Amino acid sequence: MFERGIAIVALTKRGVATAKRIRRALEKGQIRYEVYAPESLRSEGIKSFNGDLAGLLGEIFNVLDGIIAVMAVGIVVRSIAPYITSKKTDPAVVVVDDLGKYAISLLSGHLRGANHLAKMVAGEIGATAVVTTATDLLGKKSVENIAEEYDLKIVNFESITPVNSAIVNDGKVLFVSIGTSVLPEMDATPPKVISSVDELREMMEGYDAGIVIAPSTLPLESITKPVTLLVPKAAPPSC
Quick count: other Cβ atoms within 10 Å of Cβ 7? Predict the structure, then answer.
């Protein structure tokens, strides 16, 4: 996560001071970063820009994995709105106020890591992390959390919302693996092991949604309930 680096952008003198504190969190996490500020606030280790915030954010939006904006939330929302396209590709965006009291996960909280980034920054500068995704508030694991925990990729992104909705609303969610070959050696909660899509289809009759780990993509058209498919990051395109 964040292999392409993160931009820290500040607009005021106090914001630049907070940005310098934020740098330590990224350095501890061995994450590449650049700090940006208007020309009038430029100093060693800080790149300047001409004051066109929306233009700067547009340049870096699809180039970096994350943006930490040290400024008001409203400014950030208006500036990034034209560039938002998909949770699959939009960078993590975290907003920190000038004084460093709050670190707010604004965009791409789960899939691209804004929730994690907000907590990392807050822990370093003594801020309160503000995370509003329902699964986090309820202390439940989302589809994205499970994919990250098992180091897997999500095949069918359209399933994320209905499956997470089932998790949040206390629905019955089936968690299974087709075979054991793709299960990692870690302390995560193990899924049930089944042998085929046919067995999955039969089991899903008693559940509201499902999360399935498989060695490669599978035909799930016969399953009428929402199911998220997770496969290894280097999985072949089909079985």
Answer: 22
Nearby residues of 217 by Cβ (< 8 Å), 6 or more positions away: 155, 229, 231, 235, 237, 238, 239
What 3-state class would DSSP assign to 16? helix
pTM beyond 0.90: the answer is: no
Which structural domains are found in the chain, ordered by start? 6-132 (3.40.50.11220), 143-232 (3.40.1390.40)
Phi and psi of 228, rounded to 5°?
A: -95, 130
Q: Report H helices in the chain.
A: 13-28, 53-60, 73-80, 114-125, 134-137, 143-149, 160-168, 197-203
DSSP assignment of 131-180 equals ---HHHHTT---HHHHHHHTTEEES-GGGHHHHHHHHHTT--EEEEEESS
**Segment 18-67, tens digit of pLDDT:** 999 999 999 999 999 999 999 999 888 899 999 899 999 999 999 999 99
